[in-house]
Amino acid sequence: MASNSSGDESGRHQTARHRLSVIAGHLQRPSDHNAALLAVECKAQGSKPNVNTSDRGEGKTVPRRRQEIMKWNGWGYSDSKFLFNKKGQAEFTGKRYRLSGMIIPGLKDWMEGTFGANLQHKTQATPVLNTSAVQPPTLNEAFVEELKSTGIPFSHEAEDRVFRAHGHCLHEIFALREGKIGRIPDMVVWPNCHNDVVKIVELACKHNVCLIPYGGGTSVSSALECPPEETRSIVSLDTSQMNRILWIDEKNLTAHVESGIVGQDLERLLNESGYCTGHEPDSMEFSSLGGWVATRASGMKKNIYGNIEDLVVHIKMVTPRGVIEKSCQGPRMSTGPDIHHFILGSEGTLGVVTEVTIKIRPMPEYQKYGSVVFPNFEQGVACLREVARQRCAPASIRLMDNEQFKFGHALKPQVSSIFTSFLDGLKKFYITKFKGFDPNRLCVATLLFEGARERVLQHEKQVYDIAAKFGGLAAGEDNGQRGYMLTFVIAYLRDLGMDYYVIGESFETSVPWDRVLDICRNVKARIVRECKDKGVQFPPLSTCRVTQTYDAGACVYFYFAFNYRGLSDPVHVYEQVEHAAREEILANGGSLSHHHGVGKLRKEWMRETVSNVGIGMLKSVKDYVDPNNIFGNRNLL
Amino acid sequence: YRVLDKVRLQDEEEFVDILEDKRHCSDLRFAFRTFSPPPYKGGPACSSAELNQAVLESQYLRYVVKEVALETGSSVEEVRDKVCRIMREMSQNLQLRFIRLMAFTFRKVFKRVFSAVYVNMEGLQALQQATQEFPVILMPNHRSYIDFLVVSYILYNYDIPVPIVGEILRRSGAFFIRRAIGSDKLYWAVLSEYVRTIVRTGFAPLEFFVEGLRSRTLKSLPPKLGMMNMILEPFFKGEVYDVTLLPISISYDRVLEESLLAHELLGVPKPRESTAGLLKASKVLQENYGCVHVNFGRPLSVRQLCEGKINRCQYNLIPRDLPQKPNAEAQACGSWLAHMIVRLQEEGALTSPWSLMACILLQIPTTVLTEEGLLFHQLTERTLWLRKLALDFRARLSWPEKVPDSDVMSSTVALHRSVVYRKAGRVYLTRNDELERKHSMVPEEDMMRTAAAVLMLASYRNQCLHVFVRPALLALAMSITKSTKKDELLTCFCFLQEVFSNEFVFIPGKSTQDFDEACSLLHKCKAVHVSQWEVTDSDTGLEVLSFLQELLKPFIESYQLMFRFLCEERDCVFREKDFVSGVRTLATKLIVSRELHTYEALSSDMQKNVLSSLRRLGAVTKIEISENNEYKLEESLRRLSRLHLMPDCSLNWN
C-alpha cells in the first residue's frame, strides 16, 4: 500500500512483503473452509451507551470518539500536519506517511511564489472547540428513552455532534477554524450492526426524528450539513462501528462487509487473507464502504477493478419502508431497472446502507510505478486518449498539468545523498536542454501497473511505446510514486495554506475525450478571470489533472487556491468562483460530478442535469421510500 | 446599451499621422517600432501548412465530403480533390509575402493620394495587447475597396500580426463556384471550416466586414451574419475561451471611388473595377483625397457580451464537428453582436466638415445650387451652426484645430471640387462633362448629370447621418403624430425605425433605448422639453427640429414615391427589374417637371431598400420559385400607403 506504509521501504520490499503475505495466507488457511464463512452475530450486545471504548485494540482505525485521533477542524490525523519549523523550512509531522518527519525545502518558495503568501502573515485557527458556541441539543425525549432501552450507544456531547455536522468543503472547515458552529445534529448514535440500524430507523419513524447517516465524514458536497430549516431533532447515524468483514467467499471471490468499514481497514483486513478490493479512492484512509455506495465513488485503480457500481454484488439498505435487498447474488440480472441504482448515489436520502457484498481479487503479485514527461499538456492528453483507445490503460494513469508538475516538485523531500540530487539535475538537464522541453509547458503522467510480473513489464512497454509517439519520455518510478503519495497529503496541505491566508479546494468532472483540452483550458482561465473580477489580489493557483480514462471520455480534476489577504469575505469569493467554474464546466460539456456527488452544494444544477422527468422519477422514489422525510439531509433533490 | 456605454470611446484621443516622417514620430510610436510583438499565448504557433492540414482532416469536412459525394454521385476522392483545390486557392492568399509586398507598395501610393492617415494610438496599443490573449476579429466598416489594405498596412507598420482577410477568402472561393456547378455547399464548408480553424488555433487575426458588402452610399449597411456566426461558433462550442471583437472605423475625407459609386447607384454601369485597376487609373493617383482617420475601437470580449444570452450546454449532445445550423438563440446573439459592432463603428467614425456641409447643401433646392448658387458665407454660417449641433449629439469631428473656420471651409470646398465649386463668393454644384456640353441636351440627360453630383453629396451626408438619425426620427414622429404623449411618439418612432431599418442600422429590440436617447439628445440641445409622460417642443427648438425633419425628407419623399408607384401597379406580380426601371422613369419625369425635389429616388440602393422594407412589413412577398426576382403585392400594401406615412411632406404631384 503506497498510501500509508509507514517506512521508507522501496517498491521491491513492498512487493516482496505482499507476496509473502499472499503465500502466508495460503499456508495458514484453516482446513475447515467454512470457518471463514461463519455468520457473525452482532457484537454490540451488552455494551452500554456513552461508554467510550476504543476499538483500536481490534486493529480498527476509527474510534467512536473520532476527536481522539483526528483533527476537529482540519483534515486527517491529529499527529500529521505540515508546518514551518523554526528555520522556516516546511516539515510534515507524525510517522504515518512516507513524507512524515521529512523536511520539504521547496515548499516555502513555492507557496511564496505561487500565492504571494508570506510566513509572517499567519492566521491562527481556533485551537479547541468552544462548546459554549454550540447550541444545546433539541432532543426528542421519547426517542431517546426508547433508544436507551435498545442498548445502542449514543451521545449528545458537543464535540461528538460538531464532528458529524460537516464534511470537508472549504466553507465547512473555514467556519470551524473560525470557531463558528451552525446547525448541528442533536445527537449521535453508533449502531453496531444491521439490526441496530433497523431498530434506530424504526424508532426514528415512530417519533418523527430526522436521521442523517454518517460514514467517514469525507464528503465535499455539503452532504453532511444539517438543513438549517430542519426543526425536528436531528440524529447523526454514525456507521463507523459497523466495521467488520462478515465473511469471505473464496469460491466466488466476494466478501460480505459491514458498511461502516473505512477503506484502509477493508484493504488491510482483506490483505491479511491475501485479497483486496482494489477500490482506492483518494479518501480511502477515512471514507467508508457505505459512503462509497451512497455517492457512487470511484477508485484510482478502477481500470482493473472497476468503480463501486462494478464492484458491488449485493447491497442491504434499511429504509423507513423496511429493508431493501436482492434475493440472490447473480453477477448480472435482467429484472427491470437495477434496484442497486436507486441506492448507489442516493446520498443518504433513502436509507442507510448496512451491509455490502463486494467483489474481491487476489492481491496483485507485482506493482510498479512509472511516470512520463510530455512536452506539453496537449500531447499528454493525446497520449491518454490513445491509451484509452487501445484499452491498455494501466491500473492508474493520471496526467498533471504544468502547474501541478511544479507543485509536485515543490513537495520533494530533502534528498540525503549528493548522488540523488546530481541525478535529478542531470535528468532536468536532459529533459529541458537536451530534449528541448519548455519547463513552463511540460507536464507529467504518473502510472501504476499491477498484476503478474511479466504481464506488468509487457504492459509497461506497451504504454511507454505509445507515450513515445506523443513525445513522452519515461521519467522514472520515483516521480510516479511521489505523484500518488501527493494525493494523500494534499488535503493536509490545505490546512497549512489556511494558516497563511491561502484557501482552496478541488472539484471534478467527467467529459468526452474531444472536449478534455477545451474544458481544462476554459475552466482554468475562467477561475483566473473570476478571481480577478472578484478582487483577489494575487493570481490564483488554477490547475488540473486528468485522473481517469474511459472509452468515451475522462475524469478531470481541478485544483484551485488563492491568497485571500485583503478580502473581507474570502469564503464567499471562493464559492462564487467555484460556482462560476462549475457553470463553465457544464457549458463545456462536463458532467456535474464524476464521483464527489451532488449533496447540497451542486443541487441547483440537478434539474438541468437529469431533466424534469428524471427529477420526477427520483422524487417519486423518495416519496414512496421515505414519505415523512426521515432521511432528511436534503441532498440531491 | 449598458454594454455600449462601457466600451464607448473616450472623446479625446490622440490621432497620429502614420505617413509623417519618422523624425516626427512620437515616443509611443517609437516604442511600437522597436518591440516585436510577444507571441499569442493561447497556444503554440502554427504554420499555414499545419493550418491547411487541420482544415483538410477535420471531421467536419470529411463529413461534408461524404455527403456531397452521395448527393452528386461522384466518388469521395473526387470531392476531396475539389476540396484540395479550393483550399489551395484560399491558402495562396494567406502568404505573408504577398501582404508585405502590398504594404511596401501601398506606402508609396498612400503618400501620394492622402495628405495624412491618422490612427489613434491607444486603440492600436490595446489591439496589440489583445492579439496576445485571444483570437482577434478585426471588423472595419466598408467604405472603399482599399479598406483592408489600409488596415493591413497599419498593422504591418506596427508589428501587429497581419490579419487574414475574410473577404479575400470569400472571393477566392467565389471563383471556384462559378466554375463548378454543385460545389456551392462544398465551398461554404471549406470556407467556414477555414475560418473556424483560424479562430480555434489563433493562427492570425481575422478581418471581415460585418456589413458584408462595400457600402455604395457611405451609410452603414445592415450587418450580414454568415461570417459572424462562423467566428462565434468556436466560442459557443468551448473551443476557445474567448474571442475578441475589434470594431474599426475608417473615415475618408474623400472616397476614392466616389464618382464610380454615384454612377453605379444611377444604374450607369462603369466597367467592373478591381482594387488594382482602381489604383492604376492614373486619374485617381493624380488627385488629392484628403485625410483618412482610422479609429481602432476598444477590444470587446464575446464571452462577456454573450453572458446570459446563450446557453452553451446546447452543444453538449451532438459532436461539435458535425454541421449544425445555429439555433434561434445563437442567431439572435450573432445578430445582436453584429448590429452592435455596426453601432460602435458609427460611434468611432469621425465626422468631417464636408459631411456637415453636405447635410446643409442637400437642404437647399437643387436648382439654386445649379443655377444662382449659394452664398458662401451663408453656407459657412449654417455649417458652423450644424457643427455645434453635432457636438451636442456627441459626434466626433475631424474639424482641424487651430485653423480659422473660414480656411477650413474653403479648403474643404477645394478638396471636393468634383462635387461643388466656388465662384465669386457663391457655391455651385459641379456637373461632370461640363466642357463637353456643346449642343443642348434633352432635359433628362441634363438631369442625370445633376443627379450624379447630388448622389455624391447624399453619400457624404450619409457619413454623418448616424449622428442625427435618432433625434431626427423623433422630430419626424412629433410632426407626424402632432402629439406630445411619449407613448404615442414611441409607437410612431418604432414604426419609422421599422420602415427605415434598411436605411439606418438599429440594434434589434432596443427601440425604447433609441427613443430615450433621442429624447435626451434633443433635450440636451434645448429643442424639446422632456417630462415623464410628454415630449414638447420648445420655443427655441424649431430650428433644430425642422433641420432634422428636412434631413430625412429625401428618404420620405422617395419611399412615398415608390409606395405610390406600387399602389398604382395594375398587376399583382412584378419583377424587380421592372420596378427599378419603372420607378426611375417616373422619378425622372417628376424631377424634370419639378414635381419631385429629391434625386435620391433614382438611387438603386434606395429602391432595393424599399423592396426589402416592404417585404419585412408584409406588403410584398417574394415569389420563391421565380428566378427573375418576382414579387407579389399583398393587400397590406394599400393599408400601408393609406397610413400616410408623412402627411406633412406630401408631394404635390397630382
Automatic annotation (TrEMBL), chain A:
The keyword rRNA-binding is assigned to this record: no
Gene Ontology MF annotations: alkylglycerone-phosphate synthase activity; FAD binding
Biological pathway: Glycerolipid metabolism; ether lipid biosynthesis; Lipid metabolism
Catalytic activity: a long chain fatty alcohol + a 1-acylglycerone 3-phosphate = a 1-O-alkylglycerone 3-phosphate + a long-chain fatty acid + H(+); hexadecan-1-ol + 1-hexadecanoylglycerone 3-phosphate = 1-O-hexadecylglycerone 3-phosphate + hexadecanoate + H(+); 1-hexadecanoylglycerone 3-phosphate + a long-chain fatty acid = a 1-acylglycerone 3-phosphate + hexadecanoate
Domain FAD-binding PCMH-type residue range list: 181-363
Amino acids binding FAD: 213-219, 295-298, 347-353
Binding site for substrate: 494
Cofactor list: FAD
Annotated site location: Important for enzyme activity: 398
Keywords, alphabetical: Acetylation, FAD, Flavoprotein, Lipid biosynthesis, Lipid metabolism, Membrane, Peroxisome, Phosphoprotein, Transferase, Transit peptide
PROSITE patterns assigned to the protein according to its UniProt record, in alphabetical order: FAD_PCMH (PS51387)
Subcellular location: Peroxisome membrane
Keyword Hydrolase: no
InterPro entries, alphabetized: Alkyl-DHAP_Synthase (IPR025650), FAD-bd_oxidored_4_C (IPR004113), FAD-bd_PCMH (IPR016166), FAD-bd_PCMH-like_sf (IPR036318), FAD-bd_PCMH_sub1 (IPR016167), FAD-bd_PCMH_sub2 (IPR016169), FAD-linked_Oxase-like_C (IPR016164), Oxid_FAD_bind_N (IPR006094)
Its EC number(s): 2.5.1.26
SUPFAM superfamilies in UniProt: FAD-binding/transporter-associated domain-like, FAD-linked oxidases, C-terminal domain
GO biological process: ether lipid biosynthetic process
Superkingdom per UniProt: Eukaryota
GO cellular component, one term: peroxisomal membrane
PANTHER family for the chain: ALKYLDIHYDROXYACETONEPHOSPHATE SYNTHASE, PEROXISOMAL (PTHR46568:SF1)
Subunit structure: Homodimer.
Record-given protein name: Alkylglycerone-phosphate synthase
Automatic annotation (TrEMBL), chain B:
Pfam families per record: Acyltransferase, GPAT_C
Subcellular location: Membrane
GO terms under cellular component: mitochondrial membrane; peroxisomal membrane
Keywords: Acyltransferase, Membrane, Transferase
Domain of life from the UniProt record: Eukaryota
Lineage, broadest ranks: Eukaryota, Metazoa, Chordata, Craniata, Vertebrata
Protein name: Phospholipid/glycerol acyltransferase domain-containing protein
Limits of the Phospholipid/glycerol acyltransferase domain: 136-253
GO process terms (BP): ether lipid biosynthetic process; fatty acid metabolic process; phospholipid biosynthetic process; triglyceride biosynthetic process
Main location per the UniProt record: membrane
